[in-house]
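Risk register update: the risk of archive-format incompatibility is retired. Evidence:
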Amino acid sequence: MKFEQEYLTVIKSRFREIKRLGDRTLDQLSNEDLHWQYNEDSNSLAVLVKHLRGNMYSRWTDVFTTDGEKPGRQRDDEFEDDLQTMEDVEAAWEDGWQLFFDTLDGFNVEDLLRTQKIRGEDHTILDALERQHSHYAMHIGQMMFIGKQIKGSDWQSLSIPKGQSEQYLNPGK
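Archived output:
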């Protein structure tokens, strides 16, 4: 298999995994939890979801013909906590990811070195994907951290639970 095809396979898998971590975080929370903030300068989970959706629409719509920072994007509005219900948050979450995955699934190996502008700067699609993977993973990590703080001992680990590494690594012992 060529490197480029392997890269596309791997990056698709990595994005699906970070989405899954976000899914599993949201699944553990109540509507009230989605709006919890550590302080007034912190983002709630609902705000993080709204921001991710806005970013996905801006970056992954008309990738090769328009700048990834769309002129109509109201980025500051993404940080207003106005998604009221769990259904609103889940709809925004799924909508952003669907658009992103539709775009990602449409890329072929020749697209990886094609240019996309983001804020007026040229980026290869490979670079843009890496940039967004870091961005999305960071925000989903924030979501997981907030969820864990809210749930405390009721948090269901999204990885190997604390104190269970040996059991995980050596089942049956």
